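User: Teach me something about this protein's shape.
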Amino acid sequence: MVAEKIDQCMKPHGDEGIQTIENMNENHKEISEFAFSLVNVNNDDEILDIGCGGGVNIEKFLKLTSKNVDGLDYSEVSVGESIKRNKSAVESGRCKVIQADVSDMPIEDESYDLVSAFETIYFWPEIGETFKEVYRIIRPGGQFLIGQGTDGNHPDDEKWLATVEGMSVYTAPELEKYLLDAGFKSVESNVKENDYIMAVIAQK
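Assistant: First, the predicted structure itself:
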């Protein structure tokens, strides 16, 4: 049962996937709030949220920019829930949500000013190469925001790693190296005081 629930975290599917997304929307709120408090979003930024889940962060970004905010997820259920949550923006053309794999995104080079990834990089394949794919779609001077519930030193990390096949956790120095190797010119890591929540902002 635990394995099934964790599989839902990786790629929500079926009716249980919808419930998982609703839980994520609630449980990831603190991570999202911390990351949003640290990133500067301009009114004319075009934004992509990778691993958009239930579309909560798309909804937040839409309030901070007058431009388009898109989502990408490889779960069909997540795409559907994100579209449902941001229905008016989708219908007006300010938001599109696509089903695709982050390691091979059907997106043109330098399409976005800001790309975000909340509680999702744990499951990304070949993280160094995937970061290069993210770098490709960000405009010069743009940002890549990562928000996650562990800084790689959480006491529960080993339990999760032992339970979830294909999951990886990263410390701030590890992420910094991967991001700089991918081409980003600077990386800033922030860990919430008295907590393990981490936000990483890489500049192109």
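Now, about its shape. The two ends are 42 Å apart (CA to CA). Strands lie at 47-50, 69-73, 97-99, 112-118, 138-148, 186-191, 198-203. If you'd like, I can walk through any region in more detail.
User: That's plenty for now, thanks!
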